[in-house]
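Intended use. Records like the one below are meant for learning the mapping from a protein sequence to its folded structure. Do not use them to infer anything beyond what is encoded.
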Amino acid sequence: YAMVRALEKNGWDWWSVYAVALSAGLYTHYYSIFIIPVHWLYMLSRTNKKRRDGVLNIRWWVAKIGAAVLFLPWLPVALDQFKRVQASFWIPKVSDLTLPNTMIQFFSFENHDSWSHGLKLLLAAAFLATIGLTALGFKKRWREVGLLAAYALPGPVAVFVLLFKCELYR
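Structure written out for the chain above:
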């Protein structure tokens, strides 16, 4: 949201909010890393040489660098956590519920093991349908809807693919 507002206003206030929000997201949950390539794709779609918009916007670069600088103090801790997780972390077997479970956890940050199999599959289908219907209803804001979809889908799908890959090598 902050990035879209910053692009609309192009003021340092919103770019500062964007930098702090991006950094805070990384501090809060490492899945936030998935938003960075999504933002790159979004900015590439908005690039206009005449207006110096998109990836040519200097304020976007300053905000990205600012977010990285704000996250730097935590980087040694994050690397240590990554090493510990790689050394001894239990990864469950992949099943038809892995992707719905991951999506639910991705958005609620909670584990919903008590929910029924059907409900989880229904929620995953409803989420995908919502993105599709939103895209149809907001044709003038297709980039923003695409931004939401691009953020919402690759993270859980990447986790599913990684889990599936780990399962193949067990």
